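Q: My labmate handed me this sequence with no annotations at all. I'd like to see what the chain might look like in three dimensions before we decide whether it's worth expressing. Could you predict it?
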Amino acid sequence: MNYPKIIAATLVALVQACGTASTKALDNTPISQEAIAGSGSQAQVTPNSSNNPINGSSPQKVNTDQQNAEVEQQSNAPLAVSCAKEEYTSFFEQFVRGKDDQGNEIRYTFTSHYVQVRDYQDPSKLLEMMSRKNDEFSISIRDYTWVQLVPSQVDNSPYTRLKLDFQRVNDKTFRVDYIKAQYGGADEKERLVRTYGEPNAYIFEHRNGCWYLTQKLQSTKRSPNNNAPTSSKAMIESQLTQQMPYGDLRNILLNRGWQPVVTPDCKTNVGGKAEVCDQLPEVEACSGDGYCLMNFANQSDGSKLTVTTYGDYRDWRTTGQESKLRVTRWQ
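A: Here is what I predict for the chain of 331 residues:
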C-alpha cells in the first residue's frame, strides 16, 4: 500500500472541505443595512439605527423628527380652493368656515405662526404678538350672513350680526374691516339700520402661493371725554369738503358714532322702484336728476346732519377718486 499518496489525498480533501464550509458560513452571515455616501476610497459609512442600542431614539433626534413632521404637515397641507390673488374674497369665506369640504383644516393652516395685533386707530402701534394657537378669530358665518357667535345686544338673535368691508390694499395684501351691525327688513330687502361698538380689522398677505392671516387691528377703548370732541358736529363738518366721495364721508360718520336716520316715507319720496331706499337707510328723498338727501344723527348728543349728494347712488360704498357719488353740501 502506498501510504504517502493516501495521506496526500486525504489532506487535499480536508482542505477543500474546510474551504466550502467557510464559504457557506460567510453566505449565511446577515449583512447589516448601511447608508453609503460617496464612492471609492472616499466613501463614508453610517451604521443603521438598528445597530444602535437605543435604536436612535435620543432626545435630540426625537425633537428633530417632531419638527420635521410639523413642517411636512404644513407643506403637504391641502391648499384652499381660492388661493389665487384675485380670489381673495372667496378665500376669506373659506377661511371663515374653518375647514374645507373634506374636513381639512384651513384657518389654522393659513394663519401665520405669530399674528401681529396692532392698534386700529394707529396701526404703527404694536400691541402684542399672538401665537396662532391662542388666536380667537372673531368672524363666523350663519345662514349666509357674517356674525359673531355671541348673543345680539339689539334683538333676540343668538348671534351678533356684523358689517364687513373688503379693501384690496395692494397686489399682495387685503384688509377686512368689521363692526357690529343692526339690520332691518327681511331677506333680499334687508337693509343696514346702524352699526355700533368699535371697529376692528384683519389683514391677509399672499405668501408661498396662498393668502395668510398676518395682522389683527384692534380698537383700543376710548373714554367718553376723548370721544366727545371727535364726534361733534363741528368736528365732523371740519373734515367735509365739496365733491368729496360720499363713501368717505359715510365712513367718517359711522366710525365716529353717527348713525343713519331712517325715513319711513323714503319710497314715496323717491318714487318708482326706489331701490336706493333698500340699500341706504339714511336716504330721505331723491330727485330725478341725480340729487339725494341723506340724514344722520349723533348718538352722543342727538345732533343731526343732512347731506346732499349728486351722482350714481349705487356708488355709495366706493371710496376715493373712483366714486361717482359726490357730496355737494351739508347742514
